[in-house]
Specification:
This protein has about 700 residues and is of the alpha/beta class. It contains 25 helices and 21 strands. The chain folds into four domains: about 100 residues, no CATH class; about 100 residues, Beta Barrel (OB fold (Dihydrolipoamide Acetyltransferase, E2P)), CATH 2.40.50.140; about 280 residues, Rossmann fold, CATH 3.40.50; about 160 residues, 3-Layer(aba) Sandwich (Rossmann fold), CATH 3.40.50. The radius of gyration is 30 Å and the shape is globular. Bound molecules: adenosine-5'-diphosphate and magnesium ion. Magnesium ion binds next to helix 11.
Length: about 700
């Protein structure tokens, strides 16, 4: 083979394949597929076995199965929706097919006794298992039981305008080409040996089209050598792209900021408490970074209530004393306002100028706030997404602090770096209560350094959590009454309805009315996202100051709200929320010295899975453990929030299953960086292609 003449697969555009014109190529770009190599690395995320005919008797709900059966009866049913119901049977049993879209010809084609081969997913029906809209064809004779050539069918990620059969055909063509022109073995031969595969080409061909007699369990678990070989390369590519970003940051220039005890003392002197040992350790770690003349990229993880705000304030004070400005970004207005309150209390007496920049400001107020930033009249600005606006610029921004970082998108975070009038790049501190599992920390967050506040301030009493059915809501209202009589303050959180803030608000209003009627003597406030910000603020303040005793809220109070004397939390429909989110919500109580209670008031038809999830919260108050469980039950895409919105983080790798490879990824990655920088670029190109910016959060 003359390899110098043939273009590499990365140079071969998709339009070189049969069935791809300019228009379809455009559609495929939505999947980040641009060339034949991209297609080869567009790996299936699961498989179905269409190679063997299953007997009806052996089928279970959720199976994707190929069946051969005889038509028994055909009937048009007029339920909520008109449908065609076709009963078919084989020697082992009977099953119902249902079609909601059908015409007379189709209906008539199902002659009694006719043999049909069908494929589809088993779901529960009114009388046993059903398949909706199976793929089907009529056959003359049953297929022969053994087909040596049979393959499992890969299932790929799709987008609008691309179907499974169509992308499958493209991948088949790509595999053909793979046999003529293998992709570069970017990793040494010893890597293939380590994973017991012959070549990258063979591993790819296998993954796209595994023989049906493969060990299916191993394949479905992602443990096949071919998958493991690719998972390694994928984790390596993630590691490398983030290491490259880390290296790039070291080449940038930032103002050197000094942090020392003398400088912090005036702040600490005002506090009614001592910083915990963990807070002191973390501020020391931050101090070492800030002294450098290249940007800090540090993430502080600390469970809800661990006192991240104080650490942020210490870093901000130091930056201001070094002549720098600071921007603190929070995900919600309530949170931004709360931070402003704490910062004002701590830092205003020290002569520091603070300002707020949030969406609700009038145009005039915004213009004035912007002018003060550009003129360096403001030392520290605290705000929300409003800070990302293009017209927000700083004279000398030295430190960016992002609270609850998982709430922000990639582009947003990056946009803050370029807001400086000076040529210096600001230091970045990101804070999160959501722990990052080790695999992600070492690959997808490898550009960051980590600090952990692994200690809660002393004197907190653990929160007792119970899960109770909504049917007992009246009992709970009685308990709330008793709590209020004892002088306690209560949060009552209403569920988010789908994504609609309007419906959620309506829902909270109903509960509010209900509580007011049931407990006329207890002062109750309502807060939701539809309220005018000033109103929201005022009601929040009333609760914080203890004037109102019950705060009915939507999940707007989820992150960071701090009312230490509130000690009871009721969460309605907790089954609609993620575990990490519930943990965050629950973290609003248990901040003072009274024993706190959290009631998870779930719907009365809670599934087994739902029960197990809530049990995790009953059993543990450890944010790290809960986040791990959450991840286990949901998958990393959701866990990381917007960062991977609508997108799984990895194609073949799995954060837990493949964690054992991390040392090797690290070791091998370092040797590539030192010895083969061109290979590093090729690997990044192969796995990220046009998505390189996206990878860099
Ligand atoms: P989070 O880490 O969840 O953002 P906060 O910064 O809101 O937590 O702190 C929670 C509460 O603990 C606040 O009321 C804060 O003033 C208080 N706090 C912070 N550090 C200490 C400490 N060292 N000792 C006692 N209370 C503290
Ligand atoms: Mg916080």
């Amino acid at each position: 083979m003359n390899s110098s003449a043939a273009p590499s697969l990365a140079q071969l555009p998709l339009t070189a394949l049969h069935g791809v014109g300019a228009k379809f190529a455009e559609t495929l770009s939505k999947l980040d597929l641009y060339n034949v190599q991209d297609l080869l690395f567009h790996l299936p995320f699961r498989y179905v076995d269409r190679s063997r005919v299953r007997s009806i008797g052996s089928l279970r709900m959720g199976d994707m199965a190929l069946i051969e059966a005889r038509v028994l009866t055909t009937q048009v049913q007029f339920g909520r929706r008109r449908s065609l119901s076709v009963k078919v049977e084989d020697d082992s049993g009977l099953i119902n097919l249902r079609f909601f879209h059908f015409n007379a010809a189709q209906k008539n084609s199902f002659d009694q006794g006719r043999l049909v081969r069908l494929f589809g997913e088993l779901r529960p029906g009114s009388s046993g298992l059903e398949i909706y809209h199976p793929e089907f064809e009529f056959i003359d004779a049953p297929s022969s039981p053994h087909d040596e050539e049979a393959k499992l069918t890969p299932i790929y990620n799709l987008c609008d305008g691309v179907s499974q059969p169509r992308i499958r055909k493209l991948c088949e063509q790509a595999i053909e080409l793979l046999h003529l022109q293998a992709p570069d073995e970017l990793l040494g031969e010893q890597v293939n040996q380590h994973f017991a595969v012959n070549s990258l080409a063979q591993a790819l061909a296998f993954i796209h089209s595994p023989p049906a007699d493969t060990n299916q369990q191993q394949l479905f678990d992602g443990e096949h050598p071919a998958q493991q070989r690719l998972a390694f390369e994928e984790l390596l590519a993630h590691y490398l792209v983030h290491q490259r970003q880390r290296a790039a940051a070291r080449e940038e220039h930032s103002p050197s900021i000094s942090v020392n005890a003398t400088l912090l003392q005036p702040l600490l002197d005002q506090l009614p408490f001592e910083p915990t040992a963990a807070q002191k350790r973390v501020i020391n770690e931050i101090a070492k970074d800030l002294k450098q003349s290249h940007p800090m990229l540090r993430m502080v993880q600390g469970d809800v209530g661990s006192g991240k705000t104080l650490v942020a304030a210490m870093a901000a004070l130091a930056a201001v004393r070094s002549g720098q400005q600071v921007a603190l970004v929070a995900p919600t207005e309530i949170l931004a306002e709360q931070h402003l309150r704490s910062f004002k209390q701590w830092l205003e007496p020290l002569g520091i100028q603070l300002d707020l920049l949030v969406g609700k400001l009038t145009a005039k107020q915004k213009t004035s706030a912007n002018a003060k930033l550009l003129g360096h009249e403001t030392d520290i600005v605290i705000g929300t997404h409003a800070l990302f606006q293009d017209n927000v610029r700083f004279r000398s921004l030295g430190l960016v602090i992002i609270d609850e970082q998982h709430r922000f998108g990639v582009a947003q975070r990056l946009s803050l770096r370029d807001k400086n009038d000076s040529l210096l790049v600001p230091h970045q501190l990101v804070m999160t209560a959501t722990p990052i599992p080790r695999t992600l920390a070492m690959t997808s967050y490898a550009e960051l350094d980590f600090s952990i506040i692994d200690e809660l301030p002393p004197g907190r009493t653990p929160i007792q959590t119970v899960a109770i059915s909504q049917k007992r809501k009246n009992d709970i209202i009685e308990r709330v009454d008793a709590a209020v009589t004892e002088g306690r303050q209560v949060y009552w959180v209403c569920p988010l309805i789908e994504e609609s803030e309007t419906l959620s608000a309506a829902n909270a209003e109903t509960t509010y009315a209900e509580l007011k009627e049931a407990l006329p003597h207890a002062k109750c406030e309502l807060i939701h996202g539809r309220l005018k910000p000033a109103e929201k603020e005022q009601r929040m303040a009333s609760f914080k100051q203890g004037h109102s005793r019950i705060l009915v809220a939507t999940t707007v109070i989820e992150v960071g709200v701090d009312v230490p004397q509130a000690s009871v939390m009721i969460i309605e429909n907790p089954e609609r929320l993620g575990l990490a989110q519930l943990h965050q919500l629950r973290g609003r109580v248990g901040r003072g010295s009274t024993a706190s209670h959290c009631v998870l008031l779930h719907g009365d038809k809670l599934s087994q899975h739902g029960k197990q999830r809530l049990a995790v919260l009953r059993e543990s108050s450890d944010g790290f453990y809960i986040a791990e469980k959450d991840l286990e039950m949901r998958g990393p895409g959701e866990f990381l929030g917007k960062r991977q919105a609508g997108d799984m983080l990895y194609r073949v790798a799995h954060h837990e299953r493949d964690a054992h490879m991390l040392d090797l990824v690290h070791e091998y990655g370092q040797s590539l960086i030192q010895q083969q920088p061109e290979t590093v670029e090729k690997l990044i190109q192969r796995w990220f292609g046009q998505r390189q910016d996206y990878a860099l959060a």
